[in-house]
Amino acid sequence: MKQRSREYRRRIDKALATPKLQDALHKFGDAYLVSRGKAFANYDFEAMRSEISAMKTGVRENHTALLQQFVKNAEAAGATVYLAKTAEDANNYIAELAKQKGAKLAVKSKSMASEETHLNVALEKAGTKALETDLGEWIIQLAGQRPSHMVMPAIHMFKEEVAELFSKETGKTEPAEISHLVQVAREQLRQGYLEAEIGITGANIAVAETGGIALMTNEGNARLASTLPKVHVALVGTEKLVPTLKDATKVIRILPKNATGQPITSYVTWIRGAVPCAGEEKELHIVLLNNGRSTLAESPQCRDALNCIRCGACANVCPVYQTVGGHVFGHIYIGAIGIILTAFFHGLEKAAEIVRACIGCRSCVAICPSKIDLEEIILSLRETVGEEEGIGVGKDIVFRKVMRNRRLFHGLIRAASLMQKPVTRGERSIRHLPLFFSSLTEWRTLPAVAEKPLRDVILHQPQKVEKPRYRVSLFGGCANDFLYPELGLDLVTVMNAHDVEVYYPQKQNCCGVPALYSGDKETAIELAKQNIDAMLEGNPNFVLTTCPTCTMALQRDFVEHLKDNPAWAAKAEKLAEITVDAAGFVVHQLGVADQFKTSASGEKVTYHDSCHLKRGAGVWKEPRQLLESAGFDLVEMAHADRCCGFGGSYSLTSHPEIAMRILNDKLSDIVESGASCVAMDCPGCMLQIRGGVEKQGVNVRVQHTVELLAEALKNKP
Amino acid sequence: MVKEVKKNFVSAAEAAGAQVVACDGVKQAVEYLAEKTPGILLCPAFASGERIDLAGQLRRAGITVVDSDFREQAPTAQAGVTGVNFAMADTGTLALESTAEEIRLATTLPEVQFALLDPQKIYADSLEAVEPLRQLHLRDPRNYIAYITGPSRTADIERVLTIGVHGPKQLHILLVPGLSESPLEM
Predict the structure, then answer these.
(1) Whole-angstrom Cα distance, residue A50 to residue A436?
(2) Which structural domain, as residue segments, surrounds residue A546?
């Protein structure tokens, strides 16, 4: 294992051994969603974020012209503008300026760009002390750490630690009371503003129309830092550019609401040019930081990341972030956007570990105020890392040599069904594995490979449909096929009851997502082609899926992989068009949701939203509607749409220790709901949740919605 | 409509931690300031204040008023008072054209901030207020414009909301009809 990987593992272990951190981040995650909901109560978030996305995309496309406009206007207003190509350029410019001014002290308000360039270190070397004045940043500075959240840098620290740091600073014992500590900061930092020769800030927005910047703070420190010292340096990433004051206002309207659930920050400060200062003119330097941003703009797969307005929401809702915090899940910038920015601002090497830490649940995509498909971009980076560093010998052989050869792949799974007998003891779940495999079943059981896969048993399932309404093909996916064949048979029951005939094309293969998620796109493309041919054979009316990850592959990924291939693009589109998840099909295409009416037992059922069904396919009402109309007593659990921690190889090989924590959160929510059954629409989630339930001895059934519908039909009077 | 906007402004400003006081006129505002000013009050020059000789009225009400040497005096003053260019109802936000340094010193350093707002100048939200914001940018070649919502706050220690970390600990918004009609004027 590489040294880099070992250090990464150590950071994970350390974070996991800090339950207080997880507790704090979970509580924050919950409180955030509540206040965010209130903040957006009278606003249309979807409309707002569409506007931001379109505006920022426009900025990216007209960047050169807008940047010129900004510089021209800023200079006309008396600012000095410096275009820094790299972090080093920016630091050198500012350090040189500090030397020139003979500055002993620079007061800083919060600036992620200065964290990005490690400006404080450069200033210290030039003999200027940099004093952070944002409370969180000051705490971090005293502790000698880096921020673990973009908006709340010290979210990982507790008042006792802060009291200790402050006591060292004041030389007396400061009690660990938050209001007292805040007062200590006020008193300690006040003199800094008055003495400093230079004030350094970032900027949330740079407005081309005016050549001005806008700063958003709650504490008022940016106002002091930009008012009292005679020199003001604003270090601004070039992606902060917007065309007009109206566009800037739109950013201001969405950013704090999405960042912390605050309607607006206490202060929004619009600064243009050299304003009056102590009877003279202020010296304003605007350092526009490129540092990898133009490279990012040139990457078609990743450039949407430049639309980011730095609200940090992608971390707030991320189950991985909530489990390990920003010191693991990030470098300088944290969370999903942090992975991407790190790759471009600090190099692929720095991002190579964390690019695999994303579980792919898309909760960040759903909350992003700039509508960035963060998951897609992370996947494409993972592919790049895969190309550069390889995806691991084991995976390489599995994907390239085995999966691409369907007969070999399926032959090996069938063989496994026989070989597993000593560990399954004839049961459907594997509770313990011997020796070095034992860690795989430490925290969840694993399903045994079925004796006969769905593709075999379905052939012997009699289908009595006299006048078929539709003829559909079932895309089983590996789990439904080889682990849970009974699920496929239940689907046949449900479909037949509504005059739908089900076929199972025998040449279908793995959907390719496991390969794609591991960074092997080539295999994913090969599998896409195999599946398109297999599923379109016989010209079915629809292709049904029982696994939302497969659904996304058929509906979205295949099209994306093959869009530039004239031989395949149209076929991929065709398959995407007719692919529907089972619950959605029953509700929308068949329109028979009410025909299950009150046939079930009235059992209390709670529903777990699978990530790719809700945030990929946009399906979450449908299964609930079906369960209720089938007579189940549906009760909502807390965090119903939070990831269960499966993530395919994420929970098996890459990050099982994180996956386990996320699963435990899910199990607690299930138990607290009081339901005796948890329903879901994804065999991956079933594997994970059933595995946890069995291992922990929780008395809850774990079923696919289709299985419960089949059950209801059987009970139908 | 105007009433509705004013009502929204008051509830949003209060939700952000500001104290909003409706006054009949300048006289009542001065009385409120006399009662609430904890020590030295910074009173920088601003158009609507000059028109009513605000500094004079405050002095006559017995307040220790500072209206010059702000760099010297501001760090030890307890309070500051200014007018307001315009306000935004949806978030309870004040806009202060603060290019004159005295305005900034009076509203950043002391612990208590008083703002005199003519309720005629409240816009429904910040998008409506883009127009006056742009007018200010067109009028002056350089700007320092502050949007202020409630007192200074932080939640940086254990996410516990705490007031007054660097800026004012109190924000008193005095609604004074007839003070100033133009959003371009403070």
Answers:
(1) 50
(2) 450-590
